[in-house]
Structures are given as C-alpha cells and as structure tokens.
Design a protein that fits this description.
161 residues; alpha+beta; Aminopeptidase; 5-stranded mixed beta sheet; globular
Length: 161
C-alpha cells in the first residue's frame, strides 16, 4: 500500500456490459459476499422499468485504460419524494490503495448523485473494522446514522435426503 498521490490522471466512467469481467475481477478483491452479475444484468444495464425499480449505476475508475476501482450507486425512481441513493461495493484494486483513488471516485459519485439525479441524501454501509473507509466517508461529510447487528445461521446440509 502506498501513501503517495497518483501521478497519472484518473478517468471515471459508467460501466457498460462489456465491463462485466472487469467488474467481477474488482469484486473479487472485496470481502463482501460475492454475487452473480450475469443474473443482475437487467438491474445494471437496462430493461428494468426505472419508474418501478431502482436503477444501479456502476462507476469504474481507470488509469492508463485499466480499471483500478469501482463503486455502485443505486437510485430510486425519479418520482420519489426526498430521494435517497445508496452507495455499495466501493472497491479499489489492492495495488492502488492508499493513493486517494477511492476519494476521487466517491467525489465523482456524490457529484453525479446530486447533479444528475437530484438526490436528497446518500446512504451506505461499512464494516466497523474498515477504519480507512470510515475515515474517508466521514471526511466526505457522511454522518454516522446507526449501527446494525448482523446475524447468520449456518445451515449444514441435511442428512435426511
């Protein structure tokens, strides 16, 4: 992990269906549960009626044409009162962490949410042990809202088949 500023310009753009392999690779660097993006194609890249469903935008941050980070922004239908977006899956490739890539990506997503979708607020979740992310989000103006407790019940395979 480096603490130096990036020396090359960061380009941030919306992902397209051609970016699925890149998105899956970046997702693999996260400790969040994996997902099957192929199953979620309509949610990400169209065909879902946005008047009834939220839409998710995937942003890729690139240096020299290579994706090094991503973030997803879910937006509610356009006619929502006090529309609140939701940011998820902010991931920076391990070789590019500590270079303020996440900060630039988040600033871009926040600007997009405000200017393009006129959102009134943005929510996100972060693991309480992810101190670097918490520090970043607070520096960007996110305010602590509440803590959630997460439970899981492991279910071993049934032996009565």
């Amino acid at each position: 992990m480096s603490t130096h500023e990036p020396t090359k310009k960061l380009v941030i753009r919306l992902a397209t269906p051609e970016d699925i392999a890149t998105i899956e690779e970046l997702d693999s660097y996260s400790q969040s549960p994996t997902r099957n993006i192929h199953r979620d194609m309509e949610k990400y890249f169209g065909s879902v009626d946005p008047s009834f469903h939220e839409h998710t935008f995937i942003f890729l941050a690139e240096q020299d044409g290579q994706a090094i980070a991503k973030a997803e922004l879910m937006v509610p239908p356009a006619d929502s009162a006090n529309p609140t977006g939701y940011i998820k899956r902010v991931i920076v490739h391990p070789h590019h962490r500590g270079l303020k890539v996440a900060r630039q990506l988040m600033q871009h997503v926040i600007h997009y949410a405000r200017e393009t979708h006129r959102l009134a607020a943005i929510d996100l979740h972060v693991w309480e042990g992810n101190q670097s992310a918490i520090k970043l989000y607070e520096a960007l103006g996110f305010q602590y809202h509440h803590r959630e407790t997460y439970y899981r019940l492991p279910l071993p395979p049934s032996t009565n088949l």
